[in-house]
TrEMBL record:
Residues 20-50 are annotated as: Disordered. Keywords: Signal. Pfam families: Peripla_BP_2. Belongs to the bacterial solute-binding protein 8 family. Residues 1-25 form the signal peptide. This is ABC transporter substrate-binding protein. NCBIfam families: TroA_like. Residues 78-324 form the Fe/B12 periplasmic-binding domain. PROSITE patterns: FE_B12_PBP.
Length: 326
């Protein structure tokens, strides 16, 4: 719509510049004049309608991951975020000024590091209460008992607990709705959906016989199976998780991984020494180890269910299938 308006204004400007006192400009036909007269009004009306549709109407009542229903009378002016994923989502919506507290573990974006700290796995409830937030956003790292404890202090606490990529994008849309940043939220999720589509398109072009089996070690001696984001990232990349027969986090079954004979091994950049993988008894015969296809993955990109999760997806795909992504 903006492009159409700009084109129209340019066309009118050029037409005006072409008129002079010595030559009569050709008379436009009825068909040429009528649409040009109508387009600016239609564009303005459509833009106004889109802007209004993207505005949150308060009071807004929503239910969080604990099943609690709560009502927002207005966009929260003071926000405390108690998880890195929540903080990243809020900053992505442009809520820097509204954020009055974050967890000790929040390190992205850079501005998050200078925000007042509200504790880590052990929360500083005094600091949280003192911040006088309109809303406290938490993730699954904060258990329901702690959530209820915070609510008992008179705090409004909204919990998110996404299980899939789609859930993450839906949660970002909810952030946008609560904070009246729906247009910004859509911009974020549109970019994420574009990342996913790019990977899916590339994965679809890979022949069945070329599909890789992947082993992921995100914590020393631990891997992930079904029901985890990292398994979904592998699956979306068109590969097979060597631990696909397991669910959630589990200790490594060394013999099962040897039998699966993964083509690629991905490991945590922060916490796993790849040499410990190479040195395991019998693992020197695994295809990935023999071929030297062990790749470090950015922990924060693949473990935080926020706006950068699809960047993690791209990193996973590139490690599995180098040079396949257009």
């Amino acid at each position: 719509m903006l492009t159409g308006s700009a084109t129209l204004l340019l066309a009118l400007g050029l037409a005006a510049c072409g008129q002079n006192g010595t030559a009569e400009a050709p008379r436009p036909t009825k068909a040429e004049t009528q649409p040009a007269e109508q387009k600016p009004a239609e564009t303005a009306d459509t833009t106004k309608a889109a802007d209004e549709a993207a505005k949150t109407v308060y009071p807004l009542t929503l239910k969080d991951a604990t099943g609690k229903e709560m009502t927002f009378e207005a966009a929260p002016a003071k926000i405390v975020s108690l998880a890195p994923s929540e903080t990243e989502s809020l900053f992505a919506l442009g809520l820097d000024q509204e954020i009055v507290g974050v967890s000790d573990n929040d390190d992205y974006p850079e501005a998050a590091k200078s925000k007042p700290k509200m504790g880590g796995f052990e929360l500083n409830t005094e600091a949280i209460v003192a911040a006088r937030p309109d809303i406290v956003f938490v993730a699954d790292v904060t258990d329901d008992a702690t959530v209820e404890s915070l609510r008992g202090l008179g705090l409004k606490v909204f919990k998110f607990n996404p299980d899939t990529l789609e859930d993450v994008m839906n949660d970002i849309a909810v952030y946008g709705e609560i904070t009246d940043r729906q247009a910004e939220a859509k911009s974020v999720t549109d970019k994420m959906r574009g990342d996913i589509e790019k990977v899916r398109t590339a994965a679809a072009s890979i022949e069945e016989g070329e599909r890789k089996t992947v082993y992921l070690e995100f914590s020393p001696g631990w891997t992930v199976g079904k029901g985890e984001f990292m398994d979904e990232l592998i699956d979306t990349s068109g590969a097979v998780n060597a631990a696909a027969d397991t669910t959630g986090w589990s200790e490594v079954d060394a013999e099962a991984i040897i039998d699966a004979n993964p083509d690629v091994i991905l490991y945590s950049k922060l916490s796993v020494d790849p040499q410990t993988i190479r040195d395991r008894s019998g693992w020197n015969g695994i295809e990935a180890v023999k071929a030297g296809r062990l790749f470090a993955i950015d922990d924060n990109l693949v473990s935080r269910p926020g706006p950068r999760l699809t960047e993690g997806l791209i990193e996973v795909f590139d490690a599995i299938y180098p040079d396949k992504l257009q």
